């Protein structure tokens, strides 16, 4: 069950009071980039509410700006919504309504509610005034209806260049709400549109197009983020003055913001274009496709978004909260395995040369139904470099000369000798093992404090590990400072190690918990049959508490 919130209460009331007898919502992305986790909030809200009230939800591409939009994005957005686990009822393109929008604009002109303006963008901005100062009328504001109709048709026929004319709604140049000071509703753009090609050279502005789109589709509840609150009077004006039959209603909710995360398509696109990341689906990106490639699950993303709640406010959510939910989701699902990220060879000198034995290991101790796996053990294994220290500090319970540790699923081993190269680097450790201490044998003779993971050397599969840190050191959203200066130089670390032979046939997007390291996802792009690539989703421990 999803959390109750003010949007749900509002819809419930609208149905109870018979203000509405059904519910239609929409998710309206502009296809000018990939979806990010902020969009997931809008998706969860719009699809979730439609579903809860037996309503319908439209996926509508808000594609009214030919300069930034592309069908690559259309495809990616559809994939991401489906992957998140949602199905839209109807699919629409705002650009399919261009003729109707044009006709409604003509209607406004005929009613004396819109005019063609020759002022430049800068002049229009100057004339608009400020919060404390009323706006000034354009000298073209009182053109005759006939002249306006003729000029608008000429605009449509391509007789003017970009920026030479605009169509403005005629509302109120002294309104305290600047959005109502004769907003621009059409502009000229000689550009090829991803859907309508070269059919149009004038395009409706968002503030005019969006309410019409909602009205045309019969949307009852148009849910958007709070930055559109000041546009609501204009939204209602457009619906009313364009004489739309169906009247949709806009309600705003707070945006999702996350610590150390940029969430603006413009900035994300900059990271992609400047090759600071490896595409929109780079595992460090907060895009849905990046989170997918990193290994986050749809369940974790949905739970996260639901738990952050829906309100008018938009606080900043700790990114560790998402990590918490992915751990929760994977805990019982992900098989356990062992992998060595920074290998150090260990030779067990008293183990018979050439012998390999198979040991039993649980696939998931927290979910015994997942069964057992068999892993090889022999005279040569790899352990982590950090699990050996020649001169350890106090309370170091791992391997050091003379110390004994447990090898997970195997035996106790004791460090007898350290082999170094000419420069004094440790290259190999020699140990002895005690056959009495075999895991599962019930041995209680003595205790050791450290348990290490390991991989048998002769059958080990070479693997690449990609470890991540936040892409940004500080959250610079909302400031004018160049966010590229905040890039974390350590955001990606690539290491070459080994995994156990049970990992031979791993498939793209399979998720594992590597003992002592964390949860990893099999990278879908760079994994080859010879060498799997594992992306760190999250480490095992966190200070985060819900
Ligand atoms: P951006 O500012 O990142 O470019 P946008 O709002 O321009 O995003 P759209 O494609 O227009 O992107 O967004 C589609 C829907 O997703 C809109 O209704 C928008 O309000 C919503 N949305 C975008 N970002 C967030 C966010 N951080 N939290 C909640 N909803 C969001
Ligand atoms: Mg937008
Ligand atoms: Mg945008």
From TrEMBL:
An example Gene Ontology CC term for this record: cytosol
Any GO MF annotation of the entry: glutamine-tRNA ligase activity
Glutamyl/glutaminyl-tRNA synthetase class Ib catalytic domain mapped to chain residues: 23-331
PROSITE patterns assigned: AA_TRNA_LIGASE_I (PS00178)
Chain ranges passing through the membrane: none
Pfam families per UniProt: tRNA-synt_1c (PF00749), tRNA-synt_1c_C (PF03950), tRNA-synt_1c_C2 (PF20974)
Residue ranges occupied by any Glutamyl/glutaminyl-tRNA synthetase class Ib anti-codon binding domain in the UniProt entry: 334-434
EC number(s) stated in the UniProt entry for this protein: 6.1.1.18
Residues reported to bind L-glutamine: 62, 206
Ranges where the tRNA synthetases class I (E and Q) anti-codon binding domain occurs: 451-523
Placement of sequence motif 'KMSKS' region: 262-266
Chain span(s) of sequence motif 'HIGH' region: 29-39
SUPFAM superfamilies named in the record: Nucleotidylyl transferase (SSF52374), Ribosomal protein L25-like (SSF50715)
Keyword Nucleotide-binding recorded: yes
Cellular localisation: Cytoplasm
GO biological process, one term: glutaminyl-tRNA aminoacylation
Reaction(s) catalysed by this chain's protein: tRNA(Gln) + L-glutamine + ATP = L-glutaminyl-tRNA(Gln) + AMP + diphosphate
Subunit structure: Monomer.
Similarity-based family: Belongs to the class-I aminoacyl-tRNA synthetase family.
Protein name in UniProt: Glutamine--tRNA ligase
Organism this protein belongs to: Alkalihalobacillus alcalophilus ATCC 27647 = CGMCC 1.3604
Lineage: Bacteria, Bacillati, Bacillota, Bacilli, Bacillales
Gene responsible for this protein: glnS
